[in-house]
Amino acid sequence: MTTTLALNDVSGEYGGVRVLGPLSLAVADGERVALVGKSGAGKSTLLSLMFENWRPRVAYMPQALGLVDTLSVFHNVFMGRLDRHPAWYNLVTLLAPFRRDVEDVERLLARLAMEGTRRQRAGELSGGQRQRVAVARVLFQDTDVLLADEPVSALDGPLAEVVLQALTDSYRTAVLAMHDVELALRFTDRVVGIRDGHIALDEPSKRLSANDLLPLY
Amino acid sequence: MAGATEQTATMRTSLGLVAVAVICVFFADFEIATGSPWREMGRLLTGLVTPDLSNLGQVGEALLRTLAFGFTGVALGAAAGFLLALAFGHWLVRILCASVRAVHELFWALIFLQFFGLNPLTGVLAIAIPFAGIFAKVYSEILDETNPTPARVVPPGAGILARFVYARVPEAWPHLVSYTSYRLECGLRSSAILGFVGMPTLGFYLESAFAQGDYSEVGALLVTFYVLIATLRLWARPKLIPVYVIAAPFLLGGGLPIVWGNVARFFTQDIVPAPLRGETADWAGLGSWLWELLAHQALPGIANTIVLTQIALVVTGVLTLLAYPLISRHFTGRVGGTFGHVVLVIARSTPGNTCSPISSCNCGGHRCCRQSSHWRCTTAVSSPT
Q1: What is the pTM of this model?
Q2: What DSSP line would sit under B224-276, residue for residue?
Q3: How do residues B108-117 score in pLDDT, each as one tens digit?
Q4: Model ipTM?
Q5: Which of A167, B158, B278, B381 has a Cα-to-Cα distance from A195 of 20 to 30 A?
Q6: Which of A58, A83, A142 has the most B C-beta neighbours within 10 Å, making it the best mutation to test the interface with B?
Q7: Contact B165 A94 (CB under 8 A)
């Protein structure tokens, strides 16, 4: 698929106050974009707008993660594919999962260093584990485009890289909001800097260094 | 600042309610029904401390039927209430639920007695219908309060059912369970009360024991009921609930068969306004008949209900303020807490009407029940969330 994803002249409001835009932005197929900027700049609002506009094709991992605390890790991950099965299949899975799905989910969890947590409830996990469950869900969902809001904010060094590698391996096209500038430059090929609700910078990653992004903060 | 204004507003409302209640006392229709309330109370207390457990078969049957009606009614009400909760956004459903829950279980029983007679169906529906209205309201509130993010990120192609059972129900589940188990306790109390209008539950046996002046029998019935309610948590385990619910309908007892003629008569005669009954309908008389009814029965009744409710509300509030230290960890140790638990179980498990033979406020009983159970609803909803 080579269609371009685009936002034309969109703006975002929060409580009646405009916090973003109006701005236009296009993401080409196969492009991995980092959204950077200080907190409150409008990154989450922009991602949310992308999600609303590009809906059927994207997997969305919001900052709030959207986990169901009372469900097991397996079921939280399985939710990424609720649209692939008939209702009866999903209902049966809620009570007794099919082996094929269990194996798929188990493999994903192992890749994210989450072995053996399949039966735990999401509410019992630590912040870093919860974040990886949400990552596993978007990996399991496996659509065209990934939108992720701070997908590794609760993970430290090596684990953050493992998770970003997994995400970028599975999704050729992705928009990732990130506050870690180094990681953003390494795992994406384009950086969009947001300041005060507007695009302040839009450059290929390889032409930028961490210092170039400092004015955004 | 906001806190301070809120506090004064709360204070103003509270004082306003107290003032209204004080004014209401002067208008209330109090009347001492029995010659010597204190002697009656003394007899009841004596009965409570000398329960006569020789007739265990009868006590057992009373409790079994009370449980059977309670479980069947609450289970039906919960199932119907859950379905209604899904459509609670529609104003018609909201009005339907509000009107069925505005009528006390006892009044529903009196209505159903007219056409189903002393059939178990009367008791079951009398509990299930108002409970369905209450469940629908509270369930829909609980479901509305769940975190909306999971449902938002579920793939758009997922069916409405899958989205609902994965993203909404599991999160609401603990609250749904805790509210339902609380209502089960209310249902058992209602079931006990239905005995006063002839269902084979606790109230039936209580009334006949009262009538015979057998206060030790009354004591035995009440004490076993207290034990049943106080130990609810021990025997009503989540895994056993399905067993109870399946068994309950078979333990309702036979009762009397439904006379379908009565059902027909109820709809063709009993509920037809008096002037319209018979061969020639007197439409002209309908207006004055309605006016008579309104002026001499309905309006004074409503006025009395409101007056007594206001008083009961404030009395309940005062008693609650006095009683909550009994159960609050801030005030009591282990022993005190257990004692408090016992006192509160007795207070909330004694069927409302038990008090009427000994109480001086003769007409308030049933009407106050309705109001206080609404109060209980609101507190129960706000506590788990």
Answers
A1: 0.78
A2: HHHHHHHTHHHH--TTTHHHHHHHGGGGS-------HHHHHHIIIIITS-GGG
A3: 999 999 888 8
A4: 0.91
A5: A167
A6: A83
A7: yes
